[in-house]
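Each lists chain and fold; for instance:
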Amino acid sequence: MNERSLPASPNWYCSRCSDVSSSGLLGVGAKNNIYLIDVSASSCRVTGELVGHKDLVSGFSFCQHVGQSHICVSSSTDGSVRFWDSDDKVLIREDAAHQTSVTALHWSPLDKNLVVSGDEKGIVVCHWYNTGDTSSFFPEPRTIFCLSCSPHTWSCVAVGYKDGMIVLIDVSRKGEVMHRLRGHDDEIHSLAWSSVLGEDALYCRSEDGDGGGIGVSAGDGKGCYLASGSKDQTVRVWSSTRGKAVMTLKLPFMKKRGSAVDPGVKERLWLHVHWPKGRAAQLVSSCFSGELVMWDLTRAGKQRWTLFGTSSEGQNHNRIVFNMSSVRLQDDRELLVSTSMDREIKCWDLTSLDCLWTLPTLGGFVYALTFSPVGTGCLALGVGDNMIRVWNTLTTQNQYDTRSFWQGIKSKVTALAWHPQKEGSLSFGTDDGKVGIYDVFSNKPPQISSSYHRKTVYTLAWGPPVPPMSFGAAGGKPSCSLYSCAGEGVILQHDPSRLSGEATDIDKLIRDTNSIKHKLSPHTDLSWKPDGKVVAIGNEDGCIDVYEAPALKLLCSIQQHHKIINTLRWHHDHASSAELLHGLLASGSSNAIVYVHDLRSIVENPPDSPVVLTEPYRRLCGHTSKITGMAWSPHHDARLVTVSYDGTAQVWDVLQEAALSNYRGHHGYLLSVDWSPVDPDVIWTGGKDFTLQEWRVSKQEFTKPPKGKKNTELKEKMKANPRQKKKNKKTLGSGGAAPLETNGEAVKGEQKAAAGQELSGEDEDDEVSSTHSPVPAAANVEIQRKAPVTARSKDKPVFPDSNLQKKKKPRSMLPVSTSMDHRPKDDLLQDCVTLAAIRHSEAPPAGCVPGQGDHIHLGLFSDRPALRRMFESEEENHVEAGHYDSVVYLRLWSGDLEGALQLATEKGELNDHLLAIAPMAGFQAWSRAVEAFVKQLCLQEQYLKAASHLLSINKLYEAVELLHSHKLYREAIALVKARLPADEPVLKELYTCWAAVLEKDGHFSAAAKCYLAAGASFDAAKVIARKNDVSSLRTAASLARISGEVALAQSLALRCAKDLAADLDWVGAQEVLSAQETLLVHRLHLCVAELLAATLSDPPAGSPASCASSNTWASPGEAHVSIQDRVRGVWEEQFGVSQESVGNHSATYLLQELKSVESPTPTANIPLRQLQLYSSLHLTRTVLSSLLDDGGQLLKEAWQAVSWFRDAGHFCVSAELCRLLYPDGDVRVFSRKYSKTLHHTEEEEEEEEVKAAANSLQAFVTYHRLYEHWWKNSTRVQNGVSPSDGDSGPADEPTHRVVNGGGASESRVRENAACSTTTRTFDKPDFDASLLLSEPHAVCQAAQRSLGEIQERLAAMVLQHSRAQSVPLQSGEEEEVESPTQTSTTGGTSGSHGSADAAQRSEEPETLLSLSAKMSEHQKQLAALPVSIRVYPHPDVVECCLVLLHLSESSPSVSKSLQQAAKDLLRKHGAGLKASRRFLP
C-alpha cells in the first residue's frame, strides 16, 4: 500500500469491530472501511484496506481455522454482511439477510463455515460460508448488543441485549433458547467464552445462595464458562450448563490525574471482556478510564486484579477501551491488541502486561501537514478531530513516535505553520477562526491570539513585519510576524510576542501604499517568498497580487485563474541554478490547471507601476478537479507535487511540463501534501479518508491522474457514502441499537465558495459529530453514546445533565480590555506604573493614550474620555465578531440611547427591554423603534405581539391591517369591536373576508355567523343551504324568513319540504311550509300527495310502516268516498280553501300559482314516490279546476294525473287511480258529494283537445273496467275455483304493456281466453265497450307497430353487415343470421298491410332502400292523422277486440254489432296474430 501511514480511528461503541488473525493480521473497522495492519511484537504496519461498505462498519471477525485464516467477515449499519479475502483484498460475497443495522458479528471458532450476526431488531442470522445459505431466528424481541459463538459446541451462541438479558440459543434447533441468564441490569457490552472445556472450581460467591467460598464447583465439568461485561460496572462469569452466574466482579475505581472516577457516571463506561486462549483462570477487562486489568479468577480477597502497564508512566489508554483481541506468535509470545476512544491502537504483552507499541489513528480530515524547517523530520498534522499531532518521523526506536496536542483548540485544525527559525514553535489556525502558537517541547497551553477571524482559518505564514507593527531584532524581540488568512477574506498580522495585542489588517496598508479607493477582493491565500522580500496574495476572483515588503507596494497582478485561489507556493531559494528558479511561483485554484509564474525580473527590478501578467511561465495540466495543496521538492530543482479533489497526488517536472508520478492510494479527495526533508523519493499526503500516507515517487504505477472530468470511481464512492449524521447522532436512549461512532469529528466541511479555500469538500459526510470531554486527556473530543446529545452548533454540544459540564460562562461585554489582564506578570506590573503616571501627572507618558491601542484596558481606570475611547474600541471588536447586542448595551451605557436603538434596528437586535427604555430618547425615536420592532416581529411570525406594539403608539388601523393580512380574523375583529364604533366599515370588511375563508374551508355555520354580523343575511342563508341536507335547508329558510328575504325563504322552504316529502315525512314538510303564508298552494299539493300515497294500494308507498310521519287526516277513509271528495273536504277543514274562498285562498289565485310549477317528462327511471308527487301536482290542479267549474281544464289535468303512472310503466297504479277517481266509470261525473255532471257547451264541444282528452280518459277507464269485468265473472279451469272479488283486480295485470301502438299482449289474451273457456254466469257489463273500438286509433297503432318492425329489421341488417365486415362468414353462418330476420318479417305482420308486405317479401328480397321507403310511407300515414289522436292515445284496439271476442263466445253480454265491429278491426289490423286466427274465418 505505502511505506508508513496513520489510519482512520476505529469505530466506537461496537462490541467486536476489530480482530486478529492467527497469522498476526489485525483488521479494524474505521468509518466505512476495514484497515488491515500487520502486527508483530516490535512494530506494526498498515498493509491495506477493504473498501465497499456503504455505511459504518459495525463488526469484524477473522476465520481462525487453518487454511482459511485469510478469510474475514464484516457487518455494517447498512444491514449487509460481507466476506473478504484479506490476502487479495477483494470482496468474496455479500449477504443482505438483515433489514436493519447489524450490531454484532462473530465467526465461529469451532465451525469454519458458520458466521452468526445479530441486528438492532433482535434478528439472529446464521451465514454458511461454504454454501452461501442463510437462516434467520428471532429468539427475543430485544435490541442485540453483542454475541459470541461457543468454542466447544458449534450450535451454541450467546447473545447479549440492551436491557441486560443474555440468552444461550441453539442455532441447530431454529434458535431455541437453552438458557436465559439474568443478573445484569444494563447493556451487555461484551461476551467471551472460556477456551478451556469444563467448569473447574473457581473462587466465587454463590449467586443462588446455595453455598459459597473457596473451591466452589459451578458445574459438572462438561460445560464451559461464559464471561460478560455490562454497563452496570460488573463482570459476571456464568455456567453454561446450569444457566446461572457463578462469579461477579466489580470494576475497581482508580484515581487518575488526581481525581477519582465517579462510579455514577455510566455514560463514559464501555466494559469489554476478553478471555485469552488457554487461560482458564485469567480474564482481561477494560475499566473506567481506559485502563486494562487482568483478573485472577482463583484468587481470594479484594485485590483480585492486576493493572496493565505499570512498569512505566503513560502506557495505558486515557479513554474507554472498546475492543480487545489476542494472538499467539510463532515465538509463543501472546499479544493483546486494544482499541480505544483516545484514537490509539495499543499492543500488549500478556506475559509482562507491558505496552509494546502504540499506533496513533486519526479522527478527521487531514487538513494540513508540514515538516519543521528547523527540527529535521518533525512532521505536524492538523486534523479535523480537534487535535494537532507532531510525529518524529526519523526515530528508529518507535516508528510512530507521535504526540497529540488538544488544549485550547476545541475546533478542527485547518492550518499549520512552523516558525522558520525558532525550533518547536508551531502556529495553528482552526475552523472557528482561532489563531495560536504551540511550543511543542513543553506542556504549556498554547498562546491564543486575541484577534479572531469570523470564519475558518485557511492559511498561516511567517514573514517579515509590515507597518504599523514596528519591532525588530533589537531587544530580543522576534523579527517576523505571523500572518493568517481566513474565510471572510481578511489577512491579519499577529505579533507572536504579544498575541494578546490586536492584530492588524494588512488591507489598510495596501490601500494607503497603493492609493486604492475601491474595495479589495477577498483574500484566500498568501505565501511569502523565502527571502522575505515579496508576498503573493491569492484572491477570491482568481487574481494573484504580488507586493513588495515592507510597504506592500503592488508589483504585479497575475490574472490567469478565473476561480478562487486555493494554494500558492514560492520555489525554495537553495536551488543549484538560483538565479533562474528563485522567482518561480506555483498557484492552484478551483479549476484543475496548475500555473507556474516566473517573477524573477519583477522582483529584482520592481516596476514603477503595477504590471499585469496574463500568460503563465508553465502550465501543468492533468488533474480533473480543483487543486487543494502543493509543495516544491527541497531536493530537486523545479519539481512540484500537487494534490487535488480528484483523489490523487501528482509529481511534476515544471520546466518540462511533464507528469512524473501519480499516487492513488487515498479514498476520497486530498487536502494536504509535503515533501520529505530527508528522502528525495518520499512524499506525505493527507485527505478526506482520515489517513496520512507516506509513499515513494519511484514506486508508483501511474504517471498521470485518471482521465475524465471527474474521477468516476471516487465520485461513485462519494455518492454511495450517505451522510452518517443521523446514525452517528443516535443514542441508546432512543430505543435502537448502539450508535456507531467513527472517530468523533464533527461533520462540517467548510467550502471556500465566497471567502476562502474549500477545505473539506462538496459534501458533508466526512466526519462524525464530536463533543468535548469534561475530563482532560490527550484526545479531547468524543461523542457521548449514552446521553442523548444534540448538537446546537458545530462544536458546542448540549448535555441534558448539567452535572456533566460546567455552566456556560456569559460572554464578556469588554473582551478586548479583559484580554489585556491575561498578559504576563511583567506587563501587568508595568500597567500599574503607567496608570500611576497618568493619575499623578498632567500629561500621560509618551505614546500612551488610555482607552486606546495597547492601553485600551487603562480606560477603565482613567477619566471619562478614556472610557469612551475604550468603549469605541470594544464596539469595533463586537461589530467585527457579530455581537451587536453587546454594542447596543455599550452605547446604552454611554448615554447614546438613540444610537443604540438605531444599531439594534439595523441589525435586527431589538427586544422588549430596549423598547421599554426607548421613550427616554423621545417620542419620535420611540415610535421609530416600535415600527422597526414590529417589522422584526413579523419576520419572526409573532404577529399578535407586533399588533400589540402598534397599539402602544396609537396605530390601531395598522394593527388591524397587520392581523388581517396574516389571516388572524378573530383577533382583528375583537380588536375593532373593542376599540372602534360599531358602524366602522373595516369591521364589515373583516367579517366578509373571514366568511369567505370559512366558506372555502367548509365551515358553513361559522361563515353564516360572519355574514349575519356583516348584515348580509341573504349570503348567510345561502351558505347554510350549501350543505343541502334537511336540517340545513330548514335553518336557512328560517334565517331568510326572519331576515326579510321572502323569495329566498320560500325557495329554501320549498326545497326542504320536497326532500321531507320524498322521505315520507309529511308532518315535517307541512311544518316547514306553514311558516310561509305564500306557500299555501304547495301545502295543498303535499296534502294531495299524502292522501294519494295513503289511498293507493301500493304497499311500499302506502303502508304506515314506510312513512316517517303522517297527518291524522291522511288515515284511510271510507272506501266509497272518492279521492277528490276527500281532498276537498280536507282542504276546507284544514286549510280553509273552498269555492267561496277569496283572496289568497281563492281557487283562481291558487291555480295560477300552481301553473308556474314545472314537471319533467315521464320516464321509466323515475322512482314511484317521485311519480306520486308529479301526479299529485296534476291532481291538485284538477281539484282546483273543479272548484272553478272549469270542465275542460279539469279533464286535461285528470288525464295528465293518470298518464304519469301509465307512461312510466306503472299500469297497476294507473288502474287503481282510475278506480279512485271514477268509481262509477263515467269521467263526466267527477264528484258524488258535490254532484255535478260536466256538460260541454257548444263552444266547449268545439274544443277538440278537450274532447280528445275526455275520450282518452274514458277509454282507459273503460279498458280497466273491461278487464275487471272479465276477471270477476270468469272461472279458471286449471284451478277449478271461481275467483272472488279479492282475487281479481288490476294487481294481476301484467306490468309490461305497450298502449299506443306497441302490439297487443298476445300471450296475455291467450291466457285470458283459455281461462274463459268454461264459464258459469255472466253479469251484464255496466259500461259501453264501443268506445274502445276506435278506427282512427287502430290505424295509428298499426302504423306505429309497422314502424317498430321495420326498425327491428333495419337493426338486424346493420348487425349482419357489421359481422360480415369483421369476420368472413360461411354459407351456413349466413343462413343462421338471415333466418331470424325472415321469421320476424313473416310472423310480425298484422292486418292487410302486414299480409301484403309478407307476400311481397316472399317474392322479393328486402333491401335498405325498400325498408326506408316503407318507413317513410308509414311516417306519412301517421302525420296525416289528427294531432289529438297521437297526443291522447287509446288502449290497444286489437287487444280490446280479442278480449270482447273471447267474452262473446260464452256470454250474450256482447252484442252482435259489437262483435262484428271487433272482427272487422281485427281483420284489418291484427290478421297476422295467432290469437286472431281463432275468430277469423
